Amino acid sequence: MIATARRAQPTLAMVARQAGVSAPTVSKVVNGRDDVAPGTRARVLEVLEQAGYQSPLQRRSSVETSTVVEVVVDVLDSGYTVQVLNGVLGFAAGADVEVLVSVTDPSPSARFSPERRAQRMMDEGRAGMIVVTSAFSEEQLIAFRRRQIPVVVIDPLNPPSADVVSVGATNWAGGKAATEHLLELGHRRIAYIGGKTAAECNQARLHGYMAALMAQGVPVDPQYVVSGGKFRRESGVTGLQELLKLPHLPTAIFAGSDSIALGVLGEAGRHGLSVPGDISLVGFDGTKQGEESVPALTSVAQPLEEMGRVALRSLLRQARGEVPDSHRVELATHVVVRGSTAPHTT
Amino acid sequence: MIATARRAQPTLAMVARQAGVSAPTVSKVVNGRDDVAPGTRARVLEVLEQAGYQSPLQRRSSVETSTVVEVVVDVLDSGYTVQVLNGVLGFAAGADVEVLVSVTDPSPSARFSPERRAQRMMDEGRAGMIVVTSAFSEEQLIAFRRRQIPVVVIDPLNPPSADVVSVGATNWAGGKAATEHLLELGHRRIAYIGGKTAAECNQARLHGYMAALMAQGVPVDPQYVVSGGKFRRESGVTGLQELLKLPHLPTAIFAGSDSIALGVLGEAGRHGLSVPGDISLVGFDGTKQGEESVPALTSVAQPLEEMGRVALRSLLRQARGEVPDSHRVELATHVVVRGSTAPHTT
DNA sequence: CTGAAAGCGCTTACAG
DNA sequence: CTGAAAGCGCTTACAG
Questions:
Q1: B70 and B187 co-located in one domain
Q2: Of A121, A85, A128, A68, nearest to B121 (Cα)?
């Protein structure tokens, strides 16, 4: 598909002629003066929009200004976000793009409401937005698209609509591979401690886990499936506590995230359980924290930096007016075997 | 001190009159045309600079544009940088400031040389720069200041000159407190595994350690002072290996950073040494990683987020033309006692 | 190389 | 509320 050839930039005078008013009147509308009749204003606004009028400031900034993309994150605490951001930053350095990081405003008073955010992005001539948070609703994301602001969502909680470009990882395949690894080690009582139940990625991991068990003819025991609150340590702590109440402790646990796995690891230590001696443990994400824990965590690595890179590349393509090949890209996960898993001993 | 009252923005015509040339000539200089005699160009440039001429684009952007500060980091791998950045982001959200994160270009070809960076910051009307890397030399930092670009350095490796504002932590006091903690637990053979030897903060920590020992009449044994390469895991790994060669293993180790301490922790495990059973271990920084290791690390916490906040506040003050109270601020450290230290047993 | 003249795009002040 | 007229700040085309 070929980008529409741009007509010459319309001037105030051209807009005025087309709207059937004088240049000063258009000037007033553009500058938000209030001495314009509502009907006139509406008509002028329409022509302005339709003609794609840009003030000289806007026009220049889109030419001379460096490209700035905005990355919206919840908070930079998890290794997950940091690694995605690293990927974005890495690609940005090579592409001569600058990266603005903004944190989702936790307060509901919403100084940075999506509305204001969109307006600001327009004003500042930002190239687009990479979303690494679930703070934006589907409708909000689509609203950005309507304003022609390119958006890419990283691993959205809900199945992404075709109107929003998203980058994720092969969660189902990863969950399956993690469970297969444990099965190969001889484990049969394998538990899953999940993250946010409704999250698309959590469901995919859970179903990958179930698929692996079923393929081996191992029945899925609902007692061994613990839904966590979030993809956080606490979920691992409470998750293991629940499992400890069961008559038969599982011999292996697949955790929905490295954070959860690290929670399990800490809690196991507190109960005198050895990992991998008593319990084999697999995480998900492949974060640095998991790599550096003792024992180091076997984990399903998501290519987080790669996801950041791909997100930025896709965003820049959109900004150039290219149509993305696909509105959804999933990058491969792979199991990294480290010290937290061992063969099942009877 | 009162900020100088601003004169009305000079126009091209005013500059032209003052330089004794016509407006078109000034226009050419401003726009970098090459049909201007070198002497004329030099004279015009001087008047432009002295008069503080801004193009209409620059003028508006400093009024209408949101405030953007740039944070320059080496790479977002260490918890240290991430936490400082979190502090900056937190304060930024409240102050309606946007944060641009840029990574020090590792390649020497230097697409982002300090020169180009400074130019870009001027062009884009950035409010200033927070530096969390040692990639800039003292001279380069001062060069930024000369161009009126506010700069704040976080915990510089070298003692900061009075021309550059810096924010750090009380490293000496922290090193002393860490060592006192170990002394109170009854330890006497206490080693120090340091980071970058020449770094100001490393020296301060080392000397705090020595001060604590000397105050207790414990001789400083040079064998127990291991200079690490960097503030990284590897230094802890090799540091412990060196200590293991000594006839008497220390009963406690004060590491110059949490990363080093985690390196020690891992290596200790590999040698069958228990922490804190055989060796008590104290880190420095108070990072999340240290908090989440098993056992959790006793550490000298730096108020990293606070440092980020203070840095941004100071930067914004500079940007407003206020003179900082001090060119150097050190925020208090404090020992957080966790599982990696225990009383000395004989 | 330089600058008087013309021109461009927008805004302002004000008469109706 | 509207717009003709004047003006502002900058740029362009070109004569010298």
A1: no
A2: A68
